[in-house]
Amino acid sequence: LFSTVEATLDTHINFEQTASLLAHKTALSRLDHYTLSVTLPSGSTDTMTLPKSHPLVTHFTQNDVIAKLSDLPKKTIPELYALKFPKQTLLIPFNSPEGLEGMVILGARSSGAKLSTDDLDFFDALKTFVTAMLYRFLPYEKIQQAYNEKERQIARSEKIASLSNTFQDFSHELRTPLSIIKNRIQRYTPDMPAQD
Fold first, then answer.
1. Exposed/middle/buried for 27, CB within 10 Å: 0-12, 13-18, 19+?
2. 73 in helix, strand or coil?
3. pTM value?
4. Which residues contact 47 (CB under 8 A, 6 or more apart)?
């Protein structure tokens, strides 16, 4: 989703450099790490892995607002400064209830023109719509996981019930002949007391 947003914006607005930050989760939907994919002016892509404790992630998890690179402390994003992103670079975070899901990073425009108020309003609306999608998508993902877990529990309980029935049948098959033998023995030896 974030890569598509980045590519579409770059195509229509023509940025010198763009990047996307993507959250990667484990099979249990726990946040594992982030991947920063940077599209360089040459057209090549540079990819790096960021830990979930990275200052960029921490900052935008706590501050869910669009920001310019110049508004952030340099220590927050040393990678972007090293890749020579200009100070007017725009960082658009997309958060869900679980934290930072991704980000689109837009460098200077190829034409050299500054972003207008209309452009900034558009980016704000885009952030709102994508965030709304994340809020709806993640609960579905959790519901799907819960459903799969319940299916596994039902399958396990059906196996246990099947084993229980098997043991009951086996017990019945053993007790019936043993009861018959016990009754016949008691018939032939009336002097002995009955014991279980």
1. exposed
2. coil
3. 0.64
4. 35, 36, 37, 38
